[in-house]
Structure formats: C-alpha cells, structure tokens
Amino acid sequence: MISEKTARAALRSIQALSRQMSLYPMGHPSTGEALTDATVVTQALSTDEGGEAVISLLGDSIYLGKSLLPHASLELSSFLRTLQSRGIESMSFTSPVAGADIADLGAFIAGLSGDVPAEATIRLNESPYSRADLESGEGSGVRRSYTRSLDVLRGVAAALERDEHFDLSGAAWAVEQLVEQTISQPAASLLLSTMKSHDEYTFFHSVNVCILSISMGRMIGLPTEHLSALALGALLHDIGKVRVASSILQFPGRLDAAQWKQIKLHPQEGAAAILTAANPMQEIASTIAYEHHARFDGLGYPPSHRKDRNLHFYSRLVATADTYDAITTRRSYRRAETPNRALHVILNGAGTIYDPDFARAFIEMVGVYPAGSLLQLSDGDLVMVTKADDQGETPDVVLLRPAGDQLLAQPVKAEIGDREIVDQLLPGEIGVEPAALLEQVGIIIQPV
Ligand SMILES: [Fe+2]
User: Fold this and answer.
1) What sign for the dihedral angle of Cα 125, 129, 135, 136?
2) What are 46-77's pLDDT values in tens digits?
3) Is residue 64 within 8 Å of residue 101, measured between CB atoms?
4) Which of 28, 101, 196, 295 lies 20 to 30 angstroms, CA to CA, from 406?
5) Are the C-beta atoms of residues 443 and 414 closer than 8 Å to each other?
6) Per DSSP, which regions of 275-395 are E strands?
7) pLDDT digits (tens, 9 = 90+) for 127-157
C-alpha cells in the first residue's frame, strides 16, 4: 500500500520553508528551523524510495514515482498550483539531499530567485516518467471536483477574513460539478466523502457534507435542478466559522460559556455573508447555513428559530449529514468514531435532534456499514467497504490485511461470505486513509 505520509510531510515542509523565506531572511532562526526540517524530511523520503524520490505534478494530481498521492493532491492543491506557476512539473530528490539545494528550492518556489538547486541533489523537471505513466489517476472526475470545491472554500473564506466582497459564481460552479459527479459515480463519491484533514477540517468537512447531502437529496427524489441549491447550502453551511477564532475552534478541552457563545454565532455569520453574495435562486443556501444547528425539537441554535419550529427541509437534511461527518472525524477535543457508531448517534437523536424521516433516509443511503468502513472479520482478515450494503445484500469489500499479515501493497477484491464482522476499526488505528484508496479499490471510475 502506498504510504503517502512521508511524501506529504516532505511537500508540506517545502511549502513551509518557501513561505518562511518569503517572510524572513535566511539568517532568521525560524527560517533555519524550516530549512532543517525540510532537509530531514526530504532526505527521509529519498531514503524510503531507495535513494531517489521523484514527485511529479500533473493537472490536479501529485504523484510519488508512478503512484498517485490522492490525499496530498487534495490537501496541497494550492501549493501544487504554486509549484506549477513556477514551471515545476517534477522534483527529483537524490540522497543525500543537500541543505543548500533545499534552500535554493525554497527560494525558487518563493519567487526570490530564478536559480535552480546548484548541487543537483534536487533536480527539477527531469522525471523519468512520461505523462502516460502517470495518467491512471487523472480520470477521477469526482476527485477533481472535490479539489475544486476545496479551492472555492479556501477562496471564499480568505475573502471573508479580509472583509472583501465575494460572489458565489465559483461556489455555484463547483457544486454543479459535485452534483454531476455524485450522480454519475455515487459509490466513488461516497468513498471520497470519508476524506479527512486535521489542518483544514472545516473545508474537507464542508465538501463531505455537500457530497452526502447531494446523495441524500438524490435518494429522496429531488430533481437535479434542486440539488444544486441544496449542495450550495451544504458546501457553505459552516462558512461563518471564519469569524470564530481558530483558538476556540481547535480548543482541546471543554469550552466555557464565552467560547460557546462565539461558536454559536457561526450560523448567523455564515447566513449573513451568503445573503450578501447570493442571487435570489441561491438564497436558500443562507437559510441552510442559518438553520444547520437548529434541532428538530426546537432546541439547538440560533435560538430565534424556536418560535415556529418550521425548519426548511434542506436544513434538516444537511444537519444529518453534518453530524455524520463530524462524528467520524478526529478533532482536537475528541477521537473519531466509526461510521457505524455515528449512525447509532443519528438514530438515537431521531425525533429530537434530527428529523426522524431524514435520519432513517440517511442510514438507508449510507448502509449499515458505509463505504470506507474498516471491518475485522472472524477469521482475522481486515477488509474495507467500497460499496455499502444495499437492501439486505452484503457490502462490497476489498481485503486490506490478511489475518496475521501486513497491509497488502494493493487491496484485492474480496467477499465477506459467511464470516462474521467482529470489530470495526478507525483509519488511524491501522494507518490507512480509506478515501485515499479510491483509485486502487476497483470502483469503476468513468473518465469525464
Ligand atoms: Fe456548524
């Protein structure tokens, strides 16, 4: 199985170094630290790869050798574009990576220098791989629309932070793509919606909630033209968090009353921001943002909805998807729960917190063992669900780790058969990112 970890760490360390260099001179202690860090991590990467690591950039995708790095491609999409804007198509790191070369690379990426690394332990645009070698992952339209949506959220959030005007044309376009992809490739979309990011929690969470809401809207029979309005609200439902201090959002313990007061403002902050940018067709997105923490029984926040308890049904739908993704994600103040556990939470809240019809519809949509579930079977095999159980049929699974063995280099199609499911594991427990296996697990991804 491809481990993305070192490659992601290397790219992030180079990104941090180039940012640092654009802010502070080389002699600054924090620049020195960033340089040491980037040197150590890129050296570890080249050692891992047998002495030479080649990172290639093609379209929206980042590759290590010939292997697509799906998580890095999403998480580092803006850095990917920075590299491409500097004319970088590949970077080859040869052990031992020279600190001077890393410094040259950082300066080159930051636009401080036109010189490529002089010691030649890092070489630009000398990848031994052709475009055809790398194109296997490029057909994934669903991943591409995920990337676009993340970019849109980053852009809207940055504009809001600076109090700049923004319009929703980019967001509208991104959700059109997500709607199209979620309809044409439902299984791949649901698996991708398990993607997590600790650093950009809110953005990844928002795209996941958007995919889940589209899937649910589709299942309950909403016409395609209505799905876009639902999807826009789902994508932007948490945008008001831009106004909440990140120290509160990432606070590792119990929040005090003052901190809670701040958090509880995000629905109306988001709704107000959306309303200023929305055309009449898009105003429903503002309602969804406003009501997504309002409970079915009239509690929740903001409190103003309690009088009539007449929540828009899109808000009730998004609230269910919101809970599911939030519970299955690790946060600074609590661990992630398994998908099955998250469904129990939704079921327990049906009729009080959640609209019971939507709670049931949601569970029906994602199945008892949703895509991305990691299941331990009675004979010791560890499998991952690629397509949820549907009307009594067992889920489609791939084998990740045979009993008593290591993780496989490549997951293989498997069947649960008459084996029992004895446990469910969390991605962090076994070092697997289910969504990152999308291109490897045999879900048919149609080129678009
Ligand atoms: Fe929220």
Assistant:
1) negative
2) 998 889 999 999 888 898 988 888 778 888 88
3) no
4) 196
5) no
6) 374-377, 382-387
7) 888 877 776 554 468 888 998 899 999 999 9
Distance 232 CA to ligand 1 centre (A): 15
Q: What tens digit of pLDDT does each residue of 253-294 get?
A: 888 899 989 999 999 999 999 999 999 889 999 999 999 999
Question: H helices within 328-408, ranges in order?
Answer: 339-348, 356-366
Ligand 1 centroid to residue 201 C-alpha, Å: 12
How far is the centre of ligand 1, averaged over its atoms, from the C-alpha of 365 (Å)?
Answer: 22
Q: Which of 111-120, 152-161, 164-173, 286-295 has the lowest mean pLDDT?
A: 111-120
* 206 and 178 Cβ atoms separated by less than 8 Å: no
Contact predicate 421/369, CB 8 Å: yes
- How many angstroms separate the alpha carbon of residue 267 from the centre of ligand 1? 7
Looking up tokens 């095999």 gives 381
Sheet containing 122-124: give its strands across.
67-68, 61-64, 52-58, 90-94, 122-124
Q: How far is the CA of 265 from the centre of ligand 1 (A)?
A: 10
CA of 266 relative to ligand 1 center, distance in Å: 7
Report the separation in Å between the CA atom of 227 and the middle of ligand 1, taken as the mean of its atom positions. Answer: 20
41 CA → ligand 1 middle, Å: 36
Q: How far apart are CA 339 and CA 392, in angstroms?
A: 18
Please give the full DSSP string across 200-215, using - where no structure is assigned: THHHHHHHHHHHHHHH
Going by the DSSP 8-state scheme, the letter that residue 392 receives in this structure is: T
Report the C-alpha gap between 107 and 390 in whole angstroms: 53
Helix (H) or strand (E) holding 166: none
Around ion ligand 1, residues with a beta carbon closer than 5 Å are 238
Distance 353 CA to ligand 1 centre (A): 14
Give tens-digit pLDDT for 327-338: 998 877 778 899
pTM of the entire structure?
0.83
Q: Cα–Cα distance between 224 and 297 in angstroms, integer? A: 30
The answer for 395, left when phi > 0, alpha when psi is -120 to 50, beta otherwise, is beta
